[in-house]
Amino acid sequence: MKLLEYQGKELFNSYGIKVPISFLAKNLEEAKKGSKRIGFPLVLKSQLTVGGRGKAGAILICKNEKELEERFHELLNKEVKGEKPKTILLEEMADIKREFYLSFFLNRTKRCYSIIASSQGGIEIESVNNKVIMDIPLDGISSITASEVAEKMGIPNSEKNNFIDLILKLSRLVYDKEAELAEVNPLAMLKDGRFVALDAKVIIDDNALFRHDDLKKFEDLSELETLAQENGFSFVELDGDIAIIGNGAGLVMSTLDMVNDSGGKAGAFLDFGGRATTESIYQALKVISKVDKIRAILVNLFGGIVRTDLVAQAILNAYNDSTIKVPVFARITGAESEKAREMLKDSKARLFDTVEESINAAVNY
């Protein structure tokens, strides 16, 4: 889950990492209210999950209310890499002395966290030569290691303790919240010696969200994703026209790849896991039915942990009350699969012995 900047800064603030005074606005009226609290000049920042806002002109300075009116509307309607903001962050101007880069990221290859730091901030870290990269033990970064980073970055002795404190706080956030990334770019050293996070990029491991109820408020779910979550299954809408339903993320994702390899394009995938009931599967089909572009439903089910006759009954119920009207192409095997086949043999659902056969039929329908 990618947090928006203001969400990341809210998280930073809860760990004692200093951030600028800000105000989140959805419309011009709210923006004017925020400007009175912050004062001019101020910065307007589109709240987007994509990078490159600065280069795209999605971060603007306003010196007065007239500029605020013009530039707020400009940003609210400005698309960056196919994404438009729903909100704009108003932020105080910082009295910057120097800019740095600092991040912790999950290094999956080495199965640990790594820290990247640079004395150059505000630019893409890939283009920076003088950067510090260090792997962090599983029990977190120590004050000694943080001090080494500060020395390699040339942090003055007068600000060194503040910088070390910031590193330790960011490390604790990453470990506590099971983040895949926590990046501050730029990290500003102000003229009074304080360090302030001028930006925040935080990515949380989706698989860890169930352990962090406090982070669920940051989820930006669509109506269908919310309905799916309420019924205990995962749903993601895509660009194609074939809906893929299965039990188990690995099975669903491999089926999606096979559909792509066969020339088809997935319009949604839905994983109802191993605790599905007839009602939850029916609700899954109900979610799929609300995606207008879907012309076929592909079911790839291994019934080792799910009774396949429950799936068959859900499909029958969905056809009987016209919840679904498009054809279902299914490979169903495992527990009670023969019973499931018998139940569906006179329905609009077409059953196949192999997943390859069912995919070929769905793609070429």
Q: Can you walk me through this structure?
A:
The protein is an alpha+beta fold. It has helices at residues 5-14, 28-38, 65-76, 143-152, 157-177, 223-230, 249-261, 278-289, 308-320, 337-344, 355-363; strands spanning 22-25, 42-46, 59-62, 88-92, 96-107, 112-118, 131-136, 179-190, 195-197, 201-204, 234-237, 242-246, 266-271, 296-303, 328-334, 349-351. Helix 9 links the parallel strand 14 and strand 15. Helix 4 (143-152) packs across helix 5 (157-177). The radius of gyration is 25 Å and the shape is elongated. The mean pLDDT is 90.
Quick recap of the structure?
The protein has eleven helices and 16 strands. It is of the alpha+beta class. Strand 8 and strand 9 form a beta hairpin.
